[in-house]
Amino acid sequence: MNRIIKFGENVKGYNIPVLNEREVRAAAGILFLATFISLMYILFEENFVPIRYVLTFFLLDLLIRVIVNPEFSPTLILARLIVGNQEPEYVGAAQKKFAWIIGVVLASAMFVYFNILNAYGPVTGIICLVCLVFLFAESAFGICLGCMFYPLFVKKRTEYCSGGICGSGQKKEIRKISPGQLSILIAFVCFAVIFVYAMNDRFSEKPYNLSGIRSSGQTK
């Protein structure tokens, strides 16, 4: 039974249970895509059916991770199929479990609102936004926002963080941003703002249908 209900893997060279960060990120990307698409149905078609299915599977997946074993999580299994050929990157399991518990709380609240109470409002919108931010940060940048709250509640040193951010804190040269690079970033942001302001009217014009132009030309 202990081999079935557990959290994290025992890997040689690591003194605590760990998880493969590559699989975790891939699974977060899968959940982000499903949640984002279902929310688009709400925004553009006022169709709440997809989000109800997604929330059910989302919550069930997280509950399996937290209560039973991450190895039996459907999205993590799918993620392993996708990134299985990549070299594993191990991170501490404890902080991930804490982050996923936060996910369970958020998903449970959404499940109650949409699937049980059949209601929505500003609260559901905020929770959805928070979930999307958490999932996107994990999948796109490898930043576990939920893990950042772990030291606040557990007075214990965090080990094996994603990207080694809980290490010495000293940045390698390749990770540093020079004043020149920062100036380029600021200049580009300023250019983007000016460009959007200047071209907004032009880019707001409805594009011509090329097939329509071709057919009208043949008629002539």
Describe this structure in words.
The structure is a single chain. It contains 8 helices and 2 strands; from the N terminus they run βαααβααααα. With 220 residues, it is mainly α. It folds into 2 domains: 18-169, no CATH class; 177-219, no CATH class. A two-stranded antiparallel sheet has the order 1-2. The longest helix is centred in the N-terminal third of the chain and has 25 residues, at 21-45. The radius of gyration is 23 Å and the shape is globular.
Which sheet architecture does the biggest sheet show? 2 strands, antiparallel
The largest beta-sheet arranges its strands as: 1-2
The shape, in one word, is: globular
- Work out the strand percent: under 5%
* Protein structure class: mainly alpha
The total strand number stands at 2
The stretches of 5 or more residues where confidence is low (pLDDT under 50) are 215-220
Our count of domains comes out at 2
Report how far apart the termini are: 79 Å
Number of helices, counting only DSSP H or I runs of 4 residues or more: 8
Mean pLDDT: 89
